[in-house]
Amino acid sequence: MSVGTPRGLASSGQKPITEIPHPLSAAEESLSPGPDVSISSGGDKDLELTNGTLVENSSPASASSTSTSALLSRLQVEDNFEADAADLYATTETRDLFVTVDDPKKHVSTMETYITYRVSTKTTRIEFDLPEYSVRRRYQDFDWLRVKLEETQPTNLIPPLPEKFVMKGVVDRFSEEFVETRMKALDKFLKRVADHPVLSFNPHLNAFLTAKDLNKRQGLALLTKMGESVKHVAGGYKLRARPPEFNAMGEYLDTFSQKLGTIDRIAQRILREQSEYLTELREYASVYSSWAGSEEELQRPLEGVAGCVTTCCGALEDLSENMSQDFLPVLREYVLYTETMKNVLRKRDQSQAEYEGRLEAAVLRKQEDRTPMPLEVEKCQDKMECFNADLKADWERWQCNKRQDFKQLLIGMADKNINYYEKCQTAWESLVTVLQDKQTEDKTRKRPTRQQISTAELCSCSPVGQIEGGV
Amino acid sequence: MIMADSGSSEEAAVIGNTDITSTESENNIINTMVERGTSLLKKMEISVAEAEKRTGKNTVNMQETYTVYLIEIRQAESATEGGTPAAPDTLWRRYSEFELLRTYLLVTYPYIIIPPLPEKRAEFVWHKLSADNLDPDFVERRRVGLENFLLRVASHPVLSNDNIFFHFLTEEKGWREAVLDTGFQDKVDSRLKSLSAMLRVKSPDRRFTALKQYSDELNAVVSQLLRVRARVADRLYGVYKVHGNYGRVFSEWSAIEKEMGDGLQSAGHHMDTYAASIDDILEEEEHYADQLKEYLFYTDAVRSVCRKHELMQYELEMASQDLAYKKQQKEELVTGTVRIFSLKGMTSKLFGSESQEQRESRLSALEQSIEEGIEAVMEKNTECRDFVRAAWEDIERFKEQKDKDLREALISYAIMQISMCKKGIQVWSNAKECFNKM
């Protein structure tokens, strides 16, 4: 969810985080209607501006910005309308950075084998030299980006990446399924970053999207430096009390991740049950088939039933595959996301702890020797308040995304199940039609009388041993 | 007896109508039986209306609980003009009395494929279904099975005319004595013999051999089908029930959500509905299993007709063989040649041949025996021929009935599946709507 970031912001160049006006503050009056405004459902009439005129619509966010720049940006978006149609995160009318991850390829070198993905970028931002980029990146590179983002934007929630390590032998790192699932997760990660009003301007993201060769060594050096400073900050300060709003967040996250875990278990259980059901169903079909072999009139109906059951087996396989490919990975990703969020909360706590600690020390010293409040303490306070504000903003975004994602996920699950039943229903219905037609056909067909049958068969009787006496 | 081309109304109900319920489809079978229009069914409507538990003392003076079934007979020429329909005649019968009736029919009409009774004990159960004979669901299904049995007999061109059967339906007291009075039990022993004996028939009737083989195949495949079906039902039950867990977790989750809460909560209810729906679905499927079971048990009846024929054939062959032997003996006696080893022949060689008188008396005895033998063979031959004719008439009737009934059963099964799919679509659509409102 974005709130109509004015185009002016981008052109003023990269600003320190504290100077960039808070996204929420600028448009507090514009309550974004949230997902309803999303372009995800193609053909949303509110956003079709074919002749460039502003259309009256229900979204206050767009109604409030009547500036030419906003108009321009909306027109810009329209060009890429089609591309966005399926994209969940195209919830803002002013997006000017579009990224995609696709086209996985295997690379074999003497040292190792790995997969790279194509990362495509389209943008109108002036931070980028060209309007389009296409580079190849591997998982390591995504990981690097994530680390850099965490370092340079410690107060922001960084979206999670799919699991780094997979047990060799248990999961095939090069199977189509695995690569496909991972790629989707990487795509989602990058889109979330690109969507973030702050993260998307991070120079490391820029490098990631544009550089031919990522210079990582530079990053590594920075990492060690940053790591130390982070440790320094964290050491020795205990948090007194978490403000209630952050407390609520923490509690929510705990319960939420617990529920996610339960849902994961249930889904896995369902998959197991479905698999066993499928096994039995297959045998069931084959018994009907073998029965058909010893029948005449009933052969076709029985084969028909066998066929229907087999069709249902196929439909069930599709359903199960979908659940394990699409449903479970997204669910698990959110577990990671939740963990990340908890970490950010903890960091915020540390920042508050540090401030309080220093404040206390300073107050004591002030009481002793009347020195003014040290600049350090004020800086700490600023940092903390910044952190709090960022976190609240990110939290709102996260909540909105979460709602969107789960709505999508669960609707998808419902759709797949409906699909499954529809396929089965169709198969059985066509069988019934065939069988009932045959029924009426039989009723009207002329058949020989029983008398005629008996006589005919009598004549074809086989001899019954030696028969004496008149027959 | 060809089923008369019924009025178009029934056909219209059947063409392309996939909305007919499985119950309606089953009723089609019953309607067919009634339509067959035996004279018995023209006079009366038979049903097994109720089941009741009773306790009483059994033959060894011990208390036992058993179930009795109420047979209702209504006069088919129903209402008296303008008045209320006459009250049905009713009587109560135990399962064991049904068994007695059936045994009687088996013995008395060995060339007829006697309709089977519903199973005494529940077999091929899937885990949830009770295997307890006193379980109300089992009793209910048995009631239906018993009614089916009576209708099958009542619609049979031969069996429906049987007096004992008629009295079974109409005389509660004294029926048992009447059956035993027929002395059918004497024939029971020979039947048992025929079923268990390993007979070697020299020239078996190919048609009967084929029929027996088919019957064995059908028995095997339907048994297997019932077993696998039970396992399928078990698994399907598991899949549905696990979804119920979604209901609970969605409910818990909705408690911590603001905007998503309502949608989640309602969706959870639908998941509960989904999980609960499997009970009715599988209960209905039991009807299908019962239809299959009827034909499984029918194969036993077919088998016993084949065996009876085998026995007859065997006896005929034995009689013919015996006759041939006697004739040969006579020939030897007449011509004086010894082709067949006989003690008499040996002793006459050793101790001198017999006198003319002795020879002639033996000859006349043999001739008498031969005449009796010829008559016996003729009798057996006729018996066999009659049996074969009557049996094949019934077998053809049975084949037609089987094809029709099983086709009907498959249709009703398909309809059940369609209904299950529709329910599934309904529930998931409802859930989807709730998710949409999240």
Automatic annotation (TrEMBL), chain A:
Fetch the Pfam families from UniProt: PX (PF00787)
Do the record's keywords include Transit peptide? no
SMART domains the record matches: PX
- Identify the GO cellular component terms for this protein: early endosome; phagophore assembly site
Domain (PX) spans 95-216
Q: PANTHER family of this UniProt entry?
A: SORTING NEXIN-30, SORTING NEXIN-4
Q: Describe the family membership recorded for this protein in Swiss-Prot or TrEMBL.
A: Belongs to the sorting nexin family.
Stated name of the protein: Sorting nexin-30
Organism per entry: Oryzias melastigma (Marine medaka)
UniProtKB/TrEMBL annotation, chain B:
**GO CC terms:** early endosome membrane; plasma membrane; SNARE complex
**Native organism:** Oryzias melastigma
Q: Any one Gene Ontology biological process term?
A: positive regulation of autophagosome assembly
Recorded hits in SUPFAM superfamilies, A to Z, give: PX domain
Family (UniProt) = Belongs to the sorting nexin family.
Q: What is the protein name given in its UniProt record?
A: Sorting nexin-4
In terms of CDD domains, this protein maps to:
BAR_SNX4 (cd07622), PX_SNX4 (cd06864)
Superkingdom to which the source organism belongs = Eukaryota
Domain PX intervals: 47-175
